[in-house]
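User: C-alpha cells for this complex, please. No commentary.
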Amino acid sequence: MKCIVITLCAAFCIIGNASAQTKQNKRFPAADTTAAKKSYTIKKAIIIEAERRVNTAPATRHAPTIEAALQSEPSVALIRRANFALEPTLRGMSGGQVAITIDGMKMHAACVDKMDPITAYVEPENLRQLEVSSGSSDLSTGQTQGGSLNLVTIKPSFYEGLTGNAELSASSNAPFGRVRGSVNYSLNNTAARGSFSVKRSGDYSAGGGKTIGNSGFEKENYKLDILQRLPAEQEISIGYIRDNARAIGYPALIMDATKTESNILSADYRMRSVTKLIPLVTAKIYWNSVDHLMDDYARSTQEIEQRVIMPGMYMPMDGATQTAGLLGQMIFASKEHILQMTVDIYHLSAFAAMRMIPITTGAPMKLINLAGVDNLTTALAAEWNYGSQDSDFRYRVAARVDYSRRSLTDTEGKNAFAAFWNSPDIARSPVAGSINASIEYIISNQTSLRLMAARASRLPTHFENYGFYLYNPLDNAIYMGNPDLAPERGWQGEVGIQHAEPGKLQMKAAAFVNVMENYIAGRTIIAPDTTNKQFPQAFRRYEHIGAATVAGIEADCWLAFDEEWSGRTTYRWQIGRAIDLKESLPWMPPMELSAKIRWEREQYWAELGSRLTARQTQYSRTISAEDETPGYVILDFHGGLPLGLGITLQAGVENILDKNYWEYSSVNNLPSVGRNVYVGAGVVF
Amino acid sequence: MKNLILLSVFILAGILTSCTKDDTGVSPTIPISIQKIKLAEGFSAGTKIELYADDTLRTGYNRLYIRVLDSATNAVVRDAHLSIHPEMDMGSMKHSCPTEQTPSAVITGDLFPAATIFTMAGSNMNKWSITIEFHNHISDRESEITFPISVVSGSFPPKIFMGSDGKAMILSMLPVAKPIVGMNDVEFAVFTSASDVFTPVDDLTMTITPEMPSMGHGSPNNVNPTTKGNGHYTGKVNFIMTGEWKITLDLLRSGTTIGKQFFMITL
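Assistant:
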C-alpha cells in the first residue's frame, strides 16, 4: 500500500499546475466575485481549496477536512458520532432545519442514524468554497430555520496544458494517512479536471491517551469534470463524484457503517451576458445516489447481549436514496436592481430496512424503516436587491414557495406504516413559503448596518413524515413519522454590523432571534417500560411541540498588526428555549471564543490558535436527553514552509495540551481527538 | 393449449347451463372442476358424495366442502340436507370435535360448505374419519357415508383449556392464508365441550395482544375481536415487521377472565 501511495504521489509531482488562484486576497476569506453575488451580503464564503491552501484564507488554509474549515464559522457547530463525517449544525439547528447542498444540488443521507451527512461525500480537494448562510436569509437552495450550507466544488480551469498537484500526509493520533491530488488539462475550449483522495485511519485516542476502540475508517473519493466553452459566452459541463467508505467505526452508536457509497452526476449549462438586462442564466440537471449499510457484526457478543435495545441479535441495516433534480437560475440586473429567479425541482426516493438476526436461535425478522419514500418538490424563489450609489441604503427582499407531493411506494412498508397510522391515506402535499427583507444602511465606506426580518418556514423531512421505528441513541427512544406535520414556521430578526478596512481590519457582528411557532420534535406517545428488559424504549412521534425561541450573538474579527502578523477571533453565544416545555432546545451550542495569531512571510507561515468553550448547563431533558458538558480550552499550532521545487511542507500539533474533552454535540459524550501531530508534503506545478 | 381451450369451453358451458337449472336443484351437465383438494368420494343410495378441503387437513380450523351428485347422471345436486360427524378412533376410546354444519339445504354453487376443528393429529393408532349423513331432496333418498381422513399437525392448533367458569373450551384461530406486514383480518372460533357436544360461544369479549417474543414489543392499533355469531369472532392484528409473532387472546365474560391463550404465527 505504501508503494502505491508513493507512486501516486510521484505521478502527481511530475504534473505541473500553475494555479492562478494564488493571486487571491491572502488576508481574508474572499467573497464570491461573480457578478450576481457582488451585492449580496448574506452568504459567507470560506475558501478551502486544497491545492491553494498555502495562499488562501488564513483561517482555513490548513484545513484538512470540511469540518475543520467549518469550525472557523461562528454559526456552525458539528455533531460528532465518530471520527468521521461530523454533521454540521447552523445556529444549533440540524436535519430539516438546515439546507445542505452540493453546488446547489439536493442530496439526502441514506442512513437513518445520520451516519452520513452529505458533507461526507465531498473532500476538501474538490471544494472551491463553502457558502454559509445563517438564518433564513438565503432561500436559493431551500427554506430553513437555521441556515444553508452550499459546498461549491472546483471546476476545470482553462490554463493551458496539463497541471496538477499532489499531497501526502500523515498524523500520529489515529494513526492516519492520506494521499490526494488533482490534475487539470485544457485544450482550446475544453478543460477537464480530475481529483482523488485515499484515506486510511485507525482507532483514534482521546486526550490522556485513551484509545477509542472501533473508530477507524477507510475512504476514497474521486471527482471528474469536463467543461466546454461554447460561442456567445456559453459553457456546458458535466461532473461526477464518487465516494466510497467502509469499515467505519461508530463508537458512539450501536452499529458501524460497513460501507457507504455515493454517486453524484450533474450537467450544467451557463450563459453569460444573455442580454443587457440578463447577465447570467444557469441550468443544472443532476442525479445522485447514496447506498449505506451498517451492522453490528464487529461488536462483541457480550456487547450485543447487553445492549439497551434489542439485545441478543444482530441488526444489519441498509438504506438508499436517489435524488434527481433540476435547478435553474436567471439573473436580471440593471444599474440599481438585481433580481435572481430560481426554479428548484427535485425528486427523492428513499428506502431503509433493518434485519434482526438472533445470535442464538429464533426466526430472523425484517423491519422497513422508510417504505420507499417518494417526494417530489417544486420550488420557486426570487431575490431582489436594490441599491443606489446616491443612497445610503440598500434593500433586499427574498421569497420562496415549495410545493411537495409525498407518499410511500413500498407495498410491505406502506402497509405497516398505514397500520400504525390507522389509515391508508398517507399521501400528503404540503406547501411552505418564506419571505424575508433586509435593509442595509451604509454608515461609511467601511461600515454598514443591516436589519433583517423574515417569516421562515421549512418542510418536514421524510424522516419526520414517514420514519418507522427509527431508533435514536440520544434519548434511547423509538421515533415514528407523522404525515400530518405542517411546515415548521417562525419569525426571525437579525441586526448586523460590518466594518472593513481592506488589508487591515475586518469585523462582523450579528445578533439574531428566531421565534418558532410550531417546533417539530419527538413527543412521547408510549412511555418507556423499564420492566421490559428486551424493549424498554419509549415511543415518540414527530409532532409540533409548541413555540420555541432561539437567540444569539455571533462576531468575527480579523486584524492585521503589520505586514506579517495578524490575528483573528470569533465569538458565539446562543440560547434556545422550548417555551411550553420550559427547557433548552437540543443542540444549542455553549458560548465559544476562538482566537488565533498568525505570522506569515512569503510562503512561510505559523499560526497558534485556541478555542475556549464554556460549560454548557442549558441542555434539553425532554426533547432529547442531553447532559451537562464541561468547558474546555484547546490549543493548536500549525505551520508551513516551502522546500523548493514547488514542494511545501505543513505540520502542526492539534490539542497541544492533550485535553480530554467532548463537545456538547458529541453523541453519548464521545471524546474528541487528543493530541495529534501531523505532517504533510505537497507539490504544485 | 388445445386442451386448455377445450377445458375453458366446457367450464363456460357448465356455468351457463347450470344457471338455468338452479330452481330444480339438478344440473344435467358435467359439473365444473373444483379448485380444491379432493379428500374422498363414495356412493350410497344413488348419490355420489365428494369431500373437498382447501388444503391438507390439519389440526385446528378446516373448511370442508361437499359436492353431491346424482350417481346415475353425474348431475350436481344442490338441494340436500347434510351433516358431518368427525370422529377420532383411539382404540380404547372415541371422540369427536367441533363442527360447523352446512348452513343451508339449497346452494347456488356446486359445494356445500362445512367446517371442523380437529383437536389432534391422526396417526397409525389414532385415526380420524368423517361420516356424512345426507338427504338427497331431488331423489328423496337419504343415507350416510364414512370416509377415513388424514389429519396432520397444523400451524394453528386449537387451544383446549378449562375456562375459569369450569367449562372445557376449544379456541381456534382460523388460518391466515397470507399474513402480511401491516394490518391483517383475523378470526377465531370458540366452542364449549361437554360429553362430546360442542356448543359455539358468542358471549365473550376478547382482547388481542400481538407481540414479538424475541423483540419484546408489540404493535399499535389492533382491533379486538368481536362476535359475529356461531362462535366466531373477527378482529384485526397489526404486524409491523416480518418474523415470529405471538398473538395473545384474553377471553372475558362479563368482565371476568375466562382464559388466556396464544397462537404463534411467522411472517
